[in-house]
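On clarity, I found the account of how folds are encoded harder to follow than it need be. For illustration, here is how one protein appears when written out as sequence plus structure tokens:

:::
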Amino acid sequence: MGKGEPSIPDEEWERFLREAEAGTAGAPEEPSARARMVAQRLREETGRQEPWRSGQPARRQRSLVAVALAVVALDPGRVAGWFGGGGGAEGGGSAPLAVESKRPSQPPPTEAAAQQPTVEQPFRGSPAAQWGDGTAGIGLPGARATGWMSKKQVAQALEKSRDFLAASSLDPAVLRGERPEKAIALINPRQSDVQDYLTTAFRSPSRKNDPLLLFSRFEKTKVRLVGEVVKTRGRITYREGERGAVEVTTDVTYVYPVLRAAAGSDEVARTIVRREVVMSWDDPAKVVIEPGTFSLVSYKVDTTNGGCDTFTGYLTPKFSAERASSPPGDGAEVDPYDRSTPMEARMRKAGDAGCGTATRS
């Protein structure tokens, strides 16, 4: 809720949802990401099946707040710890890990010896050295008929969901700071709150409207990627959602090795971004949606060495000189490679404590 806007009591909001459910049956409605999150909260608290709020203009609406952001700084006093951990509890040694099919039970171990990354080996000393390249590190489940979709349609929805991840977080042009047109084209244009966010985020980025919540971008005049490989580890899951929709959840960690943009730079830093994006592939008979697009349900992001309270619309990694003159983060300690902790728990731990402190990079 923005400043100066009246607050809607929970009792009134729940009454509104019940009345909405009793309204015209079967009429397609425009989705709201905020409403889906509120409906989920009500189900968790009461066990009732509540409808997400429609975008009908005659009814009261809330602004989109179905997002979460956590940022982590590098501690200048832990040089060895930043780069420890070339092995991994999930696989061990240097052999590539099999694709992630379920949540790991623990984070990868940290090795005692520091192994600095180089231009030739930008993932050296990192668990990401054993991860997949690009979309190869993102596990895709088998398809089965779910909700309104056949097995074939679910398979197509899963592929398009992974296409969105590639277009939003792996596309070289987007990583150089260009607008992620291909990714945006996959988001339901009728989802007005999300479209408002997208318009504002690229025009006037801020904490509330930050393009980095969904997209990875670096300012090419300041930094450049090392090589063409982004390491990833994560998985995609799905279930039947509201009104028979196929709800897809993506939870992926991306590791970006970067150099200063200046010619001759050879110090490698890494920016680590973990995103959880929940998408709803809605039944067009029940929801106003363009074919081949999905509605956003929620999105969370946890960023290490991407900038703390610097809402420029770009990831802003620090190198050794900046780290040496910067104080450590004032929030909780975080292992950016730990995928055993659900994103919801990670967001609760971060809270409003400011910038956390990474235990390694």
Remarks:
- The two ends are 35 Å apart (CA to CA).
- Residues 62-358 form one domain.
- The chain has one domain: 62-358.
